[in-house]
């Protein structure tokens, strides 16, 4: 089981309590689709992903970004058992959606950039370390049910 320091717990709680899930989710997912275009293949039904402007303005991308952030919120609220919290979501991404698990890390990195740009100088190396650790556990747990 992952051990969390008090600083890590309070930092993660603080970051997510200040995040606007609609804005951050949309920005992180749009960034992922622009920077790593192969991730677009999973979102064929989202319509126009033709270029960066289309992706940023696509309401289905925005809506799904919010869904992803609410998914992350479950991990924030269950930091001591993220693995079990994501068991079902991992099966879904593996068996139904067939999402390559390498992509989880890419989206996590995009979210890190979104959080960093929002926090500015408050995004200290210690805060980044806590967020990276949290997202690494999320990524690992989402990849758990792949075989
Ligand atoms: Ni992901 C659906 C959470 C990364 C492709 N995804 C979901 C749902 C949640 C979710 C929650 C809704 C499940 C349901 O309907 O029951 N996804 C997460 C989280 C991460 C993540 C927490 C990582 C941080 N998903 C990714 C990545 C991709 C991805 C990296 C592809 C590149 N996800 C999908 C697709 C769907 C999806 C595709 C289904 C969308 C739809 O509307 O049908």
TrEMBL record:
InterPro entries: Globin, Globin-like_sf, Globin/Proto, Hemoglobin_b, Hemoglobin_oxygen_transport
Globin domain mapped to chain residues: 3-147
Protein's recorded name: Hemoglobin beta embryonic-1.1
Keyword Nucleotide-binding: no
Pfam families found in the cross-reference section: Globin
PANTHER family reported for this sequence: HEMOGLOBIN FAMILY MEMBER, HEMOGLOBIN SUBUNIT EPSILON
Gene symbol of the encoding locus: hbbe1.1
Superkingdom of origin organism: Eukaryota
UniProt GO BP: hydrogen peroxide catabolic process
Organism of origin: Chanos chanos (Milkfish)
Similarity remark: Belongs to the globin family.
Keyword line: Heme, Iron, Metal-binding, Oxygen transport, Transport
């Amino acid at each position: 089981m992952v051990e969390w320091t008090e600083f890590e717990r309070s930092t993660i709680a603080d970051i997510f309590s200040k995040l606007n899930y609609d804005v951050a989710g949309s920005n992180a997912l749009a960034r992922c689709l622009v920077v790593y275009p192969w991730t677009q293949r999973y979102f064929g039904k989202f319509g126009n992903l033709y270029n960066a402007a289309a992706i940023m303005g696509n309401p289905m991308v925005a809506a799904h970004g919010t869904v992803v952030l609410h998914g992350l919120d479950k991990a924030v609220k269950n930091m001591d058992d993220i693995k079990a919290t994501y068991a079902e979501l991992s099966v879904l991404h593996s068996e139904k959606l067939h999402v390559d698990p390498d992509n989880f890390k890419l989206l996590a990195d995009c979210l890190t950039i979104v959080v960093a740009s929002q926090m500015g100088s408050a995004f200290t190396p210690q805060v980044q370390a806590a967020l990276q650790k949290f997202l690494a556990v999320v990524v690992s747990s989402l990849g758990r049910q792949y075989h």
